[in-house]
Structures are given as structure tokens and as C-alpha cells.
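Recall the central idea of this unit: under ordinary conditions, the amino acid sequence of a chain determines the structure it adopts. In this exercise we apply that idea directly, starting from the sequence alone.
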Amino acid sequence: MNELALGQRWISDSESDLGLGTIVAVNGRRISMLFPATGEQREYVAGTAPLTRVSFNPGDTVESAEGWTLNIEQVVNEEGIFIYLGVRSDNGEKTQLIETRLNHHIKFNKPQDRLFTAQIDRNDWFTMRYDALRLQHQYQTSGLVGLCGARTALIPHQLHIAKEAGGRFAPRVLLSDEVGLGKTIEAGMIIHQQLLTGRASRILILLPDSLQYQWLVEMLRRFNLKFAIFDEERCNEYTDSDENPFETEQLIIAPVRLLSESDKRLAQACQANWDLVVVDEAHHLQWSEVAPSAEYQAVEQLAQACAGLLLLTATPDQLGHMGHFARLRLLDAERFFDYQKFVEEESGYQKIAEIAKVLLQAGEVSQDLLESLTTLIGGINNVQNESALLNINAKDPASKTAARQQIINSLIDQHGTGRVVFRNTRASVKGFPKRQLHVDSLELPAEYQAALQWWARRYGEQTVEQLGERQIAELLTPEIIYQKAISEDIEWWRIDPRLAWVEQLIRENANEKLLLICAHASTAITLENALRIKFGINSAVFHEGMSIVERDRAAAWFADQEEGCQLLICSEIGSEGRNFQFARHLMLFDIPLNPDLLEQRIGRLDRIGQAHDIQIHIANFAGSPAQQWFNWQHKGINAYADTCPAGVKVYQSQKDVLLTELSNLDYQDGAFDGLIAQAKAQITALNQQLEQGRDILLELNSKGFDGEALAKQIDDLDDDTSLVAFMLQVFDTYGVSQDDKGEQCLAINPTEHMLEAHFPELGDEGMTISFDRDTALSREDVRFISWDHPMVQGCFEMICSGEIGNNAVSVLNNKALPEGTYLLELIYVVESSAPKHLQPGRFLPPTPVRLLLDKAANNLAEKVSFDNLNKQLKPVNRQVASQLATALQPQIHELIGRSEIIANQQKEHLLSDALKQVESDLGAEIARLENLKAVNPSIRQDELDALYTQKDELKVQLQQAKIKLDALRLVVVSHNK
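Accordingly, the structure predicted from this sequence is:
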């Protein structure tokens, strides 16, 4: 230990948070140390004390106890006390600062300061820090930010739409894929990408009341986005303040009626400056030129006030062509201002769509068609299009395909509503399973027959309007009527033959998972209990009365392929928000009135990516209302064999007559035959209209040509093990416990010994994670950890903004170098302070610059890679490391000074490359949109203006980029083994 003197400043190696200590007494070998910052006092034994002398060098800046700072020019040692001479930063005066007057709260967070005060980190911590910088840079420049982390299967058309719409400034688009193709997922991916790239920060989702929970769960489970649900009660919390409730959260879900029923809430929502508003079930917004609905008017006002707008709707013309126009009008009122003009424009698109069909075929393109194409696309991308036109009939298949794809892309760009409407159909997207229907006819119990007669006596005189759909729907759930009608204490399940039917199916499919859906939570709860009592069958139950955690556990138990339950019993909520496509057997304990609700039930298993044919099992009571209704659904609108997008329209048109017949309960032979025949004719005509109205050009744009490539890129990224290795290293370093749960799952939990009190995204209860996409998709209780995940991003931030790993000392055992040779490895970071909405990460994210200097300041980094050097290094204990650093302190200071010149030179190269990329990428996009705007009115001027602003502001911001020393490592050659 150095010569001791009263007033010297030292720091505790084991308790650095105490601040600077001052020696207040020396008695023989005992030292008394006061730490003024905390008022603590410690006693140490000289020679073994975990203390490091605090000293600064010329070029350093230090702070006095009075708060002013000194730029050190000279250091004088008088009887063991350092006196620092230099210039004050605040007034430029030359002065001196005795070490006893140093600020007691000085934090040593600079790499060199921590190195020279013996706060030396482990070599593997230094590696982890550099890995964090490298991996963060690699991620931000990958082009997959916001796309790779969704907990979804890699489905090409969804990825294409997310990339295309999510990559725009303030996208205003209509998502209208058919059921089962994933509109909600597409919207979530767009939201996710907009948030992670900085294009958006404030998002409002509007939807019907019944879908709020579904969206809340989807956003959290699939995208790790924590939305807040707003209703009138939540808004009323701010009544006594001047605060706008919609400005208290960044991500909000609210029912449409909250705005349509209150002028005050609508005004507040319009004032809240949303970057993106999402409206689900937008086809329910009724509009006519003379009498738009209150819901439509509310969304219209909000659409005019917000930047971006996503509308999610059923197949566009399902509820009428004028309704489709009304939704386009919300997206761009200037572009779609007149319905008749819109109809005229659309008539011209059909010809272009027919041309696209010809291009998709292998046959030769005629000279007449070639001339038409030349006229259509001659004004845009001349070089590419001229080349494509020359190769349109090329003999080489690859050249011909590429040429035709280029021409189709130009047609999509220039014509139609392709930039504002995305619509994929099952006809254009492959990968769906077939459906196989199994119907068992059961005898209607006498008790149920009596319950139906009770219902008829009570309600038989009332009209459909008086009863309402909900009351009539009870006829399809006889157990509910039985509970109301029969007073005896005989539970319904004791007389219901459907229990034996369920038990038989479970036994016949012993190695299969079965999903059972029924209308009511009470039925699901009773059924689960009854199966356990009567047959000893353990099943999971899932209903709206359970908490989110309870639902997760039930879903996870069902999903577990080894130890999970065979049967999951869901109430109607089971047909919303959750996908169980690892199963192929669907049991319908009852059937719903609404064809869309039936499709939602089947859609839990019938999803794109389902590997097996769907087995739909139904038990019908002969002669019951349910059997009559099943016949109408199956024979009339073919609702079970295939998707039925027009089914709800047929149901609405026949509803009054259908429900009247259903509620009569006096079914004569063939009572429903006429209605079934009428429905069959109507659904055939509607399906033909939908097929004839298919816009091939629109479908090509919606499906995209880049989806497969995007899926392959993300799949390759998933297979890259660098994320797994990095996160496991972070868990080990920061003290997070890990328990292998098998099936590529890992349980992680906080411990009392963590380096940080709060590890990103890790709550007290811990979590189960997987880095495998398929595993996470099959297990509802497992979090999917990807590059996009907030835990990974939080770890990057925690490491790079903290001190851990920012210095190290290692030994290199290399006899080719003289013993005592030293190298200094320095990690600089070039970073811009540009606002996130400008997307600086695309062009200049925090970029590590590695230098490896010998004693003459020669940079050996290109000759000796980080990984190769790292493999040869040996760790040393902190005491030896401190001795080496102290002995070489003057030389290290000189090398740091000389390294700044080299690092700044590299910064200028990086900055030059970034500016060229800004000009190239944004300049090309601006030129493309400007050219297109001349022929396609769907190009919005505000989108062009935003690109100009982004380009200009980025250039200014990037030129102000700074470089800082982030970490350093002293490497000393030793020949000792």
C-alpha cells in the first residue's frame, strides 16, 4: 500500500457506492477512513485493506466539493497529498485543487477512471459488453426490426403486408383479408414495426366492446405491447383535473361507442395527437351520403385528426360496394370524394387486372398486349421497365419470370387501390386444411322436451322482435332452458347423452387433443366437473370468469404434449383470441345462431399453417331446434365444409323468417326445406359475385412477391444461436437463475444476488421462456424471446448505459511476444442523438469502433480480431490487475489520448457512409413516389413531405454524431503458465 497520510482520498473496492473516503487517522497498521458522502466510517488493516488510492492525471477533469470543475494540467505531490493545478471550466481562471477538497460524491464510471481506481471487471464481462454493442448494431441495421419478434408463424402474405404498410410514414390502409388469414396479426405487426422503428409512439385501437379483451391479449402475448383499456369509468378518473384522459397513456384500447356516444370524449380523443388509429370491424360503420351513423361520424372526425389509420374489415363488398367506398373515404377523403367517380375508375382497373392474369400465365404475350403495356407503364422506372418489356417473352424461364414480375409490380404501383387496400383470399393463399364433418344424432331426453315445451308456453306468443336473438338462441342450448324450467334437483348433465358422446370421442382419439366449445361459461364449468365425476376424465376449462393467469394455465396445460390434458372445454370466449391449431379435433357441444360466430369457432383450429385436416364433431338431438338450425347452416349456406364469408349476409336477409320458424317448435317434415333452398341459391349467387369481383392485381399486391424471402430471412435469424448465447451470458452475469424445463423451455427467476435490482421485464414471479418460435406458439405460458423482445432490448440498454464490463485487465501467454509487452484494446461508440422518429438506427445506430494499440499507438485491430484475441487471454485477479494498471498508468493515458485521433478518423468514415445511405435510400423512395404521384392519386403529399423532412433532418442530426470511449482492456504479455 502507498505511503499513508491524513487527508488522502481512497475508494473502497468492495463498497464503491460509499463515494470518496478520507484518511482521518493512522495508528500503526490500522487506518480509520471517513466517507463524507454517506457519513460512514470504516477501520482497515494496512496492506490487506480493499482500498485503492484515487489519483488523477493531466488531461482529466475533476469536480470540487463546491461544485466547480478543474481541467488538470499538472499534478504535485506534497508530503503524500496530491495538489491538482489547472484551469477552472466555469471562468477560465488558473487555480489549484487539493485532493481533500474533491467532491465526495464523485462516481468513477469512465472506463479509465474505474480501471485506475481498481474497479476492474471480469474479462467475460468485457466480452459481454462488446457483444451487446455488436449485436445491437447488427439488429438495428438488419431491416427486420419489428418483424422478427412477433409470436406468430412466418406466413409470407402477413410479412409482406407488415413490411409494406409498416414501413410507411403514417400508413392509411384497409386490411380486408378473408377470415383465417390473420387481419389482427397483420395489424399487430404493423403496430409493432411502427413502434420499434420510431415511426409511431401513440396508438389508439377502437373496436366493439366484445373484442377489447381479445385485442388486449393479442397485443400482449404476440407483440409484448402493453395497452390500457379505456372506458367511461376510466375517463371519469380525470374529471377533477384539466388532464385529457387520452393523453395519460401512449397505447390505448377503447370501444367505438365511447366516442360515438359522447361529444366530450370524441373531442378529447381528437385532441390527443395520435400517430396511428386502428379500427377493427370497420364494416360495422354504417354510411350513406345523407345519413351516416354516429359511429361512422366519430371515426371520420378522428380520421381527420390522426396521422395514420388502419381499418380492419370483412371482405370489402360483403356489405355493399358503397360501404367499401365509405371506408376508403375515411382513409383519404381527398382521393375518394365522389362515389360515381370511384365506380368509373374501378371499371378501368378490370382491364388491367385481366392483363395481369395473362402475365401470370406461361404463354406468349401478344404484340397488341405488349403495346398496351408499353402505354401503361412507359412513364415510370423507364430503364427497368424497358428491359422487362424486351424480356417479356424470353426463352430463358428465369429472365421471363423476372421481367413479368417487374411489369406486374409497375402495374400495381400505378393503378388501382393497391396502396390503400390489402385483401388476401383463401383462393389466392394456399396452406389451409380441409374440413371433415362428423354428425351424431342423439335422442332428445324427455326432460329436455318438457323444458322446450315450457319455453314455448312462456314465449310462444311473442314476435321475433319482442324476443330478440339472445332469447331465441336459448333453443340451441337445451341445458340452459332445463335449468330455468325444471325445479327438481337433478343436474342437467345426469340426463344429457352428450356426456357419453364426449367420453366416447375422447376414448376413440386417445392420442389426440380435443377442443370443445359451448355457448355459456356455466355449461363449460358444469361439463368439466361432470366428466370428472362420471368418467374420471380430467380436462381444462376456459371461460370469461377466469383471470388472465388462470386462462394461461389452462391453455398451457392443454398445449403440453407430454403431460397436458387431452380435452379443453371453452365457453364462447374460446372462439376469440386464442389459436389451438396444434389440435385437429373440434367438438361443438352446441351451435351458434350467427354464421360468423360459427366460423370463429372453427377458425380456432382452421388456420393457415394447420398441419392436419380439421375434424368437426357435432351431436344433434333429433327433431330439436338445434338440428333444424344445423340443417340450414350445413345444407343452406355450406358453413361447415368451407369458409362462408357471405353467410352472414344470407342470415341477415332471412333472419326474421328463420327465427320465427325456429321459435315455433312445431317442425313439420320439410318445414325448413324452402328456406334452405332459398339460402343455397342466394349463397351461390353471392359467391359467384365475390369471385367475379376478385381483383387479381389487388391480390398480387396483397400477397406480395417478397413474403417468402422475408420468411426465410427471419427463419435464418431464428436459427442463429448468437441471441441464445448472449442472453444466457447476461443471465449468468447479472445473477438471474435458470432452470431447464425441457422442450426448449427455460424457467428464469430473479435472485437476491442480482447485480441490478430490476432485471428488464422480469417480475418477482419469474417466467418461462423459449428462443424457439414453434415451442412458443404451442405453449401459451411460454414467452418467445427474440431480438425484438423488450427483455433483449432492455438488456442492451442496461449493459450499454451502465458500467459493467467497461474495463478489464487480461494476460496474453504468447512466447512470440516479449514478456511485459502490453496492448490496449479500446471500444469507442459512434452515436447520434437524432429523434427516434427519424429512424437514425437504419443509417447510424450506436456503432462500436474497436482499436487495438501497441505501445507505439499502432492500430492492430484489422490484423487481430476480437474473437481470436479473446480466445488467447487469461483472467487475472483484481489485485494483480490493479498493480498492472497502476504501473502502466502514464502509458495508458498517453495511448488513450492518441486513440482519440484514430477513433475520430473512423467516425468520419462511418458518418460519410451513413449520409450516402440516407441520400441513396430515402432519395430513391422519394423519386419513386414522385414519379408515381403523376399517375396514381393514391400517393399522399404528406407522405412525400415526411420523407423530404426525414432526409433533411437526418443529414443535420447525423453530422452532429459524437464518439465516446465506452470500454477498454489492458492486455499484458506473460510467459508464466
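DSSP finds 33 helices and 31 strands in the chain.
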